[in-house]
Amino acid sequence: MALLQISEPGLSAAPHQHRLAVGIDLGTTNSLVATVRSGSAACLPDDDGRTLLPSVVHYGADQTVTVGHAAQKRQNQDPANTVVSVKRFMGRGLTDVADAATPYRFVDEPGMLKLSTAAGIKSPVEVSADILRALRTRAEQSLGGELVGAVITVPAYFDDAQRQATKDAARLAGLNVLRLLNEPTAAAIAYGLDNASEGTYVVYDLGGGTFDVSILELTRGVFEVRATSGDSQLGGDDFDHRLYCWILEAAGLSQLNDKDARLLLTKARQAKEALTEHASTQITAKLSDDSVIDVELTAEIFQQITDHLVQKTVTPVRRALRDARLTADDIKGVVLVGGATRMPHVRRAVAQLFGKPPLTNLDPDKVVALGAAMQANVLAGNKGDDDWLLLDVIPLSLGLETMGGLVEKVIPRNSTIPTARAQEFTTFKDGQTAMAIHVLQGERELVTDCRSLARFELRGIPAMVAGAARIRVTFQVDADGLLSVSAQEQSSGVQASIVVKPSYGLSDDEIGRMLSDSMAHAGDDLEARKLAEARVESESIVNATLAALEQDGDLLNADERQAVDTALAAAQAANAGSNANLIRTAAEALNQASGDFAARRMDRAVSRGLAGHKVSDF
Ligand code: ADP
Ligand code: MG
């Protein structure tokens, strides 16, 4: 999603008319709505003055829908009908979440999973729509008018299905989506980094259940997401869980029933949050058997027992830096996002990692909503002279299958979008009139190790000798991340094309696995590539020799023919094996053996060409 904003049709505002637009951070744990008033962005509070809306929805048997704090209160009594972290289910099928421990009754359906609740069957889109509707109502009441639209943020890693599901939820909630915006990009906007001098910034986002790190680069007013990485199973919840285990140990308990466990988890979260401000805290809870837990916890112990979780964020940070080909020294500033980055030991670790204190003057759990509000303000036409140019990247390389089952990468991973790249390919056989185009995604060298995205065929290529046709294949990824591939034969102009969604259905984990596979197998892949290349090279010599023998075999005497045939058979035999060196040597020998033959064929072709002409004609 690029943010090259020129003008949105129908949205140019009449002078002095302020159009109401909001930014919404639709978070896994908490959601917020913000707007720009009198030039500055602010989060809108509920009637009780709270800006955070817990992303929790309770469905009652009497069809009542409760959202936020009130729903959170029902969670302990009625977990099966209280949906939390619904963002994890957006655009996902049942198999994607099969191993997650949840209290829900899932309904297996093709496409996105659904939840069976007391108020009926709900899809994650409907649950998200209920959260969005609550925020829309809050905004309209507080601003006193109807909204022209909203910018809604999504994780940089969200794929097409997840983005589409988010858009659908907004539409269902009666919101006009001005744009989906990546969360790190929104945070950068909130900090005004787009107005800063040039430099590279890191956005470190530790939320309730996910960790995301992004590297943004600003050059000559152009803001670009250079790389993203993260851990979809790491967040504040893990700190709560670790603390929960510690409390059990301290209280000498081994196991609790579900209800007590949830109560204690809530206590753990409260203790964790208290320790951000205080040196120690008292944890007290009354269990269902009337026994009482009462333990003291110091910030020091809390930090010790959770330090390994903080350290777990280091690997994705390093990976993102490596992908962007940068070191920590190249980073000009670090933006902290997500409630969990309030913890002092998280801040210390980040400062240590980058050798400088992170930016913290904005509230880490509001920063995304604030940036989204600023973007919404521009898109609604309230501010005409802005020229943000913000670019996103594609997470995995896109390429084509070439001879020998190899993948030729056309657009490397982490290329900024929108992007277009073209590469020329040629035919492999004489007289070849069609070419199969197989589009793949992934980092590995072999087709079998990458993900197949689409196939199509270019037909009607004029018959030519192998290698003469020039087929230009263009890959284009538009601002919404949609890939289209087209192929055109240059001399005849025949063309074919296809549109594919490159990231459809790929989860972070899959992307992560495909990346780590490509690193682990770098050695094997190199060997496999060598072998496949040797085979392709040798096969083309074998084919050319066979064609030449058929056409001009009479130029050879019996001995010469014998020598060529022997070399030919040896090359074919080597090709059937899998020794790249042997294949190369045999192909080279065939080349040598047919060298004279080729020269004689050339002479014949020339004399045929000269036949009937006088030298003076030339
Ligand atoms: P998400 O992006 O997942 O919706 P948030 O950015 O709202 O999440 O972060 C929620 C997490 O932040 C929760 O785990 C919460 O306990 C944690 N958190 C909020 N305030 C504090 C605090 N003062 N100290 C430590 N953790 C906090
Ligand atoms: Mg968040």
TrEMBL record:
Residue intervals passing through the bilayer: none
Record keywords, A-Z: ATP-binding, Chaperone, Nucleotide-binding
Entry keyword annotation includes S-adenosyl-L-methionine: no
CDD domains in the cross-refs: ASKHA_NBD_HSP70_HscA
Origin: domain of life: Bacteria
InterPro entries: ATPase_NBD, Heat_shock_70_CS, HscA_NBD, HSP70_C_sf, HSP70_peptide-bd_sf, Hsp_70_fam, ISC_FeS_clus_asmbl_HscA
Mitochondrion in keyword set: no
Protein family per UniProt: Belongs to the heat shock protein 70 family.
HAMAP family per record: HscA
Function of the protein: Chaperone involved in the maturation of iron-sulfur cluster-containing proteins. Has a low intrinsic ATPase activity which is markedly stimulated by HscB.
Protein name listed in UniProt: Chaperone protein HscA homolog
Organism annotation: Jeongeupia chitinilytica
